[in-house]
Amino acid sequence: MAGMGRRDFLKFTGTAVMAALFKPYAPLMTTLKSYPPEEVKPASPTGLGRVTNALIWAYDNPHPGATRLKSLPRDAVVEIYDAISTEGLLSHNPVWCLTSSGWVYSAWVQPVKQQFNPVVRDVPQTGFWAQVSVPYVEALSRPDGKSARLYRLYYSSVHLVVAHVQDALGQSWYQIRDNLAPGRPQYVRAENLRPISPEEMAPISPDVEDKLIQVNIQQQMLYAYERGSLVFSTRCATGASFNVENQGVVNFGTPYGKHQVIRKSPSQHMRGGLGRSDYYDLPGVPFCTYFTNTGVAVHGAYWHNDFGAPRSHGCVNVMPEAAQWVYRWSLPVASYTDTNLEVKQGGTPIVVG
Question: Which of 59, 87, 112 is the last residue of a domain?
Fold first, then answer.
């Protein structure tokens, strides 16, 4: 997002994946027999995608009822050759992506990149924020590729780097700090994390006090207004109901009403539902803007690409880029070194309805 102005960012609306690549559905694509389909596939991939569900299928055609060709497990990384908008498996998302295995439904494929980065060896005392820039990377207990894995960190998750360490082989590692276990060191290969510059977290229109965020539950949209004028919008995924063993259907709906920003953090390790089927354990949730004392926030989501329908435990999931915009734009302004800004007054109003 570096160098992207507020008005330019309006072009990004958080619709389904790779909106710039969307094309009308072409009848030619209904008759593909084998993969890769050379008659429609570009010479090179346009991007990468990571499977977010336990298992998904690649199909011979991009529409419901198509024939299954191949199963793809969670964290499989696929090359994306095309993306089109047609009839989706879910009513709110019409987008399919073409891979070498067939057509995959975009709701379960996170757009990712494979970007390696220069290493920062002189880490400031306060640390610096960094974002995973590859499909995933392992966080280990020691700076040693043979040590125990603590977590798998996913593309676009954000982490606080507190030190640089070089191992016996001369490889560089970053030590990161986790808010749920700040005393337990975790180490990640340094080239897989992209440092986030202070400019990328600088406030957007900080001089404007008349700001409002509206979350429309029916539309599954988030809108941001300055002085009554719309300046930003993005699709979102709000709270849903889950069937929890021994409890039945539990409503985790995003609370309606008038709220305001009460806390901001560039990164949070979120965990809940321990011992239940709806358990989640999500390190490095990016750019969290909290608006209730129970921990409901607007934040980025890397564990799905299914925006436009309720599916969270109460929070407002948006694409990571959109979460960063909301974090920078909402009041009060957070400094680069703030890990957990508590807001006493003056937080931007957030209306959920």
Answer: 112
